[in-house]
Amino acid sequence: MPASEPDAGGLASPPGPPVKKRRRHGCLWGCVGALVAVIAIGGVVLAIAPGDSDETTTAAPSETNEGTPQEKTREPQGERADLVSFRLDDRSQAGVTDVWVVWTVRNSSGEKSDYAWDWEAVDADGVRLTNGSQLETDVQPGQTARGEYFTTLKSVNGVKLNITGFDRTVSY
Questions:
Q1: Is the entire prediction scored with pTM above 0.70?
Q2: 93 exposed, middle or buried (CB, 10 Å; 0-12, 13-18, 19+)?
Q3: Phi and psi for 60 in degrees, rounded to 5?
Q4: Which element (helix H / strand E) includes 151?
Q5: How is domain 52-170 classified at the architecture level of CATH?
Q6: Residue 115's beta-bridge partner residues?
Q7: Residue pair 117/165 in contact by the 8 Å Cβ criterion
């Protein structure tokens, strides 16, 4: 008597074990699809935001009148000159530390622009005290934008700001 037909007592034997269905290259095609998607997205990002990047470390511009006449006449080159001012502002009072970085960006290009820059604060010995990244978006041609950001610095005495990376991209 076949296993699927009930025996004389009305009971059927249990069904056999499940049969495994073989997957053919399912994981391979999934991985290839994911890789193609990552490459396509990376290509689109690089095509949309090429920007001019300056990865050298330079001292941050400030609005002080310190320095030699030669330093006063020397200006940052290219789009980096759009960062007109970047300095520390000590607002501490009554024993409460309150140090901020403040900046002014002036868009001298003919296009609405986004600005991103990395910075570090170092002491007189060159030891990094803190660092950060700032972003100013949708700055119209000829427009000036100002911003500020709280820091964890305890004092501004002997602290120097350096711009470690700067990038201007067209804003959409």
A1: no
A2: exposed
A3: -70, 145
A4: none
A5: Sandwich (2.60)
A6: 136, 168
A7: yes
